[in-house]
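Quick illustration, no need to memorize.
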Amino acid sequence: MNYLLTTVAILMIAALPQPLLTQEPSQRLVYADFEQLDKDKRPASARGGKVLPDVAAQNNDNKPKLALRLFGAQGPLSQRLGFEFDLAKPNDWAEASIKIIGLKDRGRLDDWEKTLIVKSEDLSQYSKLTLDIGAVGVSQVRIRLVSEGNGVDAGGAFPESFLEVSNELKNYQLPLSGFKQPTGDWVKKKVTAEQIIKKLTAVQISIVQVPAKGMVIVDNITFEK
């Protein structure tokens, strides 16, 4: 999917506004600005949490393709994270995602899945999630609030918000009250965004359109009051 790198310049058209210098630190939590790398030079959240790519599909023989990309600072833009995606038919449904874990993990369990032991945090004092995001190949992304391994059983059906995006990197503000659990017969566990945000472990950004092929670039994920 390297041909997509030539389209990345489209996402750099708009110079992004800088945070107000008068803003009190307590009013804003920087969740992920992708300036930090882990010891293996992989992107991490602002406090050392892993960034995990993931794909899933109805047709297990035709899973999506996903590749992480890291773009260095350029002009007014700071270092950014991108991911290329390719979701192809035949598939009744498919998704390509990155999951950004907020806090540094505690390692992995010695089980057959080598399950990551993640720490939760209570971010219920904040009212909105903000991020800079743009995409080539799709006009919509799904954003989910995730709590895993910390006593909240959502059965995988985490509260979500669908965001209309363009091919310019722009800032968006999403009220946390607007995140809703998906509906359908497959949703067996009922949870609210308020429950999840009190034990948040990750923010997930996904492409769920089939077919779809392109790239997402994201930066400056924050929680604000």
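Residues 12-24 have pLDDT under 50 and may be disordered.
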